[in-house]
Amino acid sequence: MRIAVAGLQHESNTFLPGTTPLAAFERPGGWPPLSRGPEMLSVLRGTAVPAAGALAVADTRPDVAIVPIQWGLAQPSAPIARDAFDGLADAIVEGIATAHAAARLDGLYLDLHGAMVVDGIDDGEGELLHRLRVRLGTDLPVAVSADLHANLSPGFVDRVTVLDGYRAYPHDDMAETGARTFRRLLRHLDRGAARPATVMVRPGFVVALTWQCTLTDPAKGLKERAESMMAADPDLAVFQAYGFPLADIPDCGPAIVVQHPDATRASAVADTLLAAWQAAEPDFDGPIPTATEAVRQAMVLAGTPGTGPVVIADTQDNPGGGGPGDTPGMLAALLDQGADGAVLVHIADRAAAEAAHAAGVGGTVDLGLGGKQLPEYGVPVPGPWRVEALGDGRFTGMGPMYRGNRISLGPVALLAQAGGRVIVAGPKMQASEPGLLHHLGLDPAAVPILVVKSSVHFRGAYQAMAKAVLVGRAPGPVTADLRDLTYRRLQPGVRIAGTAR
């Protein structure tokens, strides 16, 4: 069987200014770079991305020939520039069409996100699938793996034969999801089966990123319920998409997609899970302390018996939600409160990293950190800073999200002022990768207070070692309380979780 493989991933925050250019896919900070044709195989194999899981399954099937087309990912940010999207999407469509014309393809696997917004297009993935179906027709089986944060549209779902998605947040199951999706595609092709009945239902509310974590309830219980149903029925597939709430588009919000050969069974499962979601709605909400309150709590907890760091999530500057990675509020709170020994990971500031390398270990750099990309969220934290450690920014991911990725951040540095410390690097990156700390000679388990620019993904690397985990709210664009946003385009009746109480 000849199966084409392609991928295009972006999570778009429509509340951010500007657009995301093609260069963001070419240098995606911690993720594999844009690759085409056979180079995809060497770039992706051994990483944690979904396509790597699909390729690993293909390697076990001598009767499967992979036709690599193009794979690219950009860090979450503003909607994609139209010319960038058109170039990337057209390369995928043309590449698949050319391959299909040369020798008939039996199937297609796409590694997509589901929350991609393009300048002028609300549903980037739906548009890509539309272009594919126009060129290739409706008969070619198409399997798609998607992110748990997907904002699913009917057009997207209707154009897919097999749909699956991450079940965990933090996303420690990306490669597993790609493998599962590819196995489902192979089973579909082996059987020569018709497209399974597909039912999509919506709970009718949006959920902030903080409350989507599947390590804690209510998301934990909803995940376990769906998984128990699938374990009892091998033909059942359930994708519970939580949606990316920082996209003001009509299809923003959670959706439950059920696939089964029996349409009656698919509808019954969808209704059961929908009722469970609606009953859980009040629990998708809660208070979040300010940066100062979180640091004070962390200092108290750090002084109690036990081992491991007290971890504070700087959730409103989460690069995984479109944050710039340089808002200064949490760093300022650490210094103002005298949080000795604390480490913040990390401020995206290439000039500061280069200045630190010029000064050398033991040297001093007198410059402000943070607050340069989106100054409305705070002014830079003034120096001087002492240079404690330097690195070239080249290391291999060791955490569950970036494991196996060959990461290249450029010059990185550990800076200190009074008792506080901060890592600086050029590009932003989700702070869920302990390899950066080890690269600079730090053991995260020995740090008393560890501040990470992340909302949930950090838990995959740090929750097990942490003495305690706190989520803090410093000014930033990844809004933790969705009541602070002005939505204009949600579907009628859709509300923010918890506001119906």
Structure description:
With 501 residues, the chain is an alpha/beta fold. It folds into 3 domains: 1-194, Rossmann fold; 196-288 and 483-501, no CATH class; 291-480, no CATH class. 30% of the residues lie in helices and 20% in strands. The chain is built from 14 helices and 21 strands. It has helices spanning 23-26, 39-44, 50-58, 82-102, 124-136, 154-158, 174-191, 219-232, 263-280, 291-302, 329-337, 350-359, 435-439, 458-462; strands spanning 2-9, 35-36, 65-73, 107-112, 142-146, 162-165, 197-201, 205-206, 237-241, 255-260, 310-314, 343-348, 364-365, 385-391, 394-396, 406-408, 412-417, 420-425, 449-452, 468-472, 495-496. The protein has an 8-stranded mixed beta sheet with strand order 13-14-17-18-12-19-11-20. It has a 6-stranded mixed beta sheet with strand order 2-3-1-4-5-6, with helices on both faces. A 3-stranded antiparallel beta sheet has the order 7-10-9.
